[in-house]
Amino acid sequence: MKKVYIIISTYNEEGSVGMLTQSLEENLSTIQNCSYELVFVNDGSKDQTFVKLLDLQKIYQNITIINQSKNFGHELAMTAGMNYAVEQNFENEYAVLFMDADMQHPPEVAAELIRLWLAGDSLVLTKRTDNLDKGFRYKMMGNLYYWILNGISDVKIPRNMPDFRLLDKKYVLWMSSLNEHDRMFRGMLSLIGLTNATIINFEAPKRFAGQSNYNFLNLYKLAIDSVIQFSVKPLRIASLIGFLGCVFSFIFLTVSVYINFTNNEPRTGFLTLLCITVFFSSLTILFLGVIGEYIGRIHIQVKNRPLYFNDVIKKK
């Protein structure tokens, strides 16, 4: 029998996991010829999420808890769940469905993803038509983010397509073969290819409980990771600007010498020299920072450390 592993990453979601589990059980119970397992990845929650999950495991038969030793981040939480599915069911036919625990990924849509997979679709993605929990400013910033990202990245990442998706075994094995420490699932999947994807639209409702765990610093890190993981264009842009800066400096120097000789006016040029020095020194520091980002990630990757540490807790 086919099986679906529903990977649910949770971080401080004590108010949502109970309702999510109940709603998933109601929506998935009508699906025939397919079993499923709810794999909750507790990503170092600081509230009572882990206790709530243990209580739910006593009630429901098909819940597995992956308890991360600390908060490794959303991407690695999904990786931990995906790797668990690979280890458990390597030879049989299965799929992995990723979703969040805040109820903004509707359980009824999750059931629809599974039905499409059973009908023969091997890669089923979702596209968010609206997010009732976010305002106009968030949507504008999101559009700007994707415009910049796809402008300087070698891998094009579709906008408004969250990590709410179902992957057949073939895609799961491809994704698990990518041995990267800094991960962005959307970019990794685009790197593999989306030509055979089926896309269904959905409207994200407001969070059932709690607040979003993504602050400005999290989003900033995600933006930096998105660019650096899939492109070397920032390095090329830095080289181009450096070259143009050298040309500009040469032209400016030539013009300054010409004016001094033709007008016979003694000029110290101190302010001009100071401005140029500060400008190009700032560019140098900026470009060194870009290069440092790449070197830092190489430094971390070559250590080949484990991506995460966790305990897998199954129902006894």
From TrEMBL:
InterPro entries: Glyco_trans_2-like, Glycosyltransferase_2, Nucleotide-diphossugar_trans
Keywords: Glycosyltransferase, Membrane, Transferase, Transmembrane, Transmembrane helix
Pfam families from the UniProt entry: Glycos_transf_2
Record field: transmembrane: 237-259, 271-295
Subcellular location: Membrane
Membrane topology: Multi-pass membrane protein
Domain Glycosyltransferase 2-like: 6-170
Main subcellular location: membrane
CDD domains named among the record's database cross-references: DPM1_like_bac
The keyword Membrane appears for this protein: yes
PANTHER family for the chain: PROPHAGE BACTOPRENOL GLUCOSYL TRANSFERASE HOMOLOG, UNDECAPRENYL-PHOSPHATE 4-DEOXY-4-FORMAMIDO-L-ARABINOSE TRANSFERASE-RELATED
Protein name in UniProt: Glycosyltransferase family 2 protein
Native source species: Chryseobacterium camelliae
